[in-house]
Design a protein that fits this description.
Blueprint lengths: L1 H5 L6 H12 L6 H10 L6 H13 L3 E3 L6 E3 L8 E7 L5 E4 L2 H13 L7 E7 L2 H17 L1
Parallel strand pairs: 3-5
Antiparallel strand pairs: 1-2, 3-4
Helix pairs in contact: 3-4
The structure holds zinc ion (3 copies).
One zinc ion binds next to loops.
């Protein structure tokens, strides 16, 4: 919300509602899921408004849209360095955002080599979180036991 105000955007009711809904989500969510979560608490926003708010949040780096699922997450890094990187579990949707300077330097160097001035880094590593990995190993073992 401070980011909004600092950049001259008003904190409207829909903006507050969508941001809070993103804060409460444990995994990337679609606009439809945001709408359902709001209505389960007695709130209502039409889909177009939700899309508009998400679009603004993404432009301001307050939220991100993850390429693998198309779901939205709240940015947890704030203004740090223009870098937003994710690891995302393709099974349960658990995710973490991080920044890494060394990675950034390397990526910018590559960009320079391509005659390009890097301004922002964004990446997503898709895979399996440790708890889903453990579950999978257990399932594999019990499947083997049945043969
Ligand atoms: Zn971010
Ligand atoms: Zn998982
Ligand atoms: Zn960077």
């Amino acid at each position: 919300m401070q980011t909004l105000q600092a950049r001259g955007y008003r904190v409207t009711r829909p903006r507050r509602m969508v941001l809070q809904s993103l804060e409460e989500a444990a995994r990337p969510v679609s606009p439809h899921e945001i709408q359902s979560a709001l209505s389960s608490k007695g709130g209502y926003l039409d889909r177009v408004t939700i899309y508009r708010v998400l679009d603004l949040f993404c432009r301001l780096n307050l939220a991100h849209r993850l390429p693998s699922s198309g779901g939205f997450v709240k940015c947890s890094l704030g203004e740090k360095g223009g870098c937003h990187r994710f690891v995302v579990c393709r099974q349960c949707g658990a995710f973490q955002e991080f920044a890494d300077e060394a990675l950034c330097r390397e990526e910018s160097k590559l960009a320079t080599g391509l005659d390009f001035h890097a301004e922002r880094h964004f990446s997503e590593t898709s895979g399996i979180c440790s708890s889903c990995y453990e579950l999978r190993q257990k399932a594999l073992l019990s499947a083997e036991g049945q043969v």
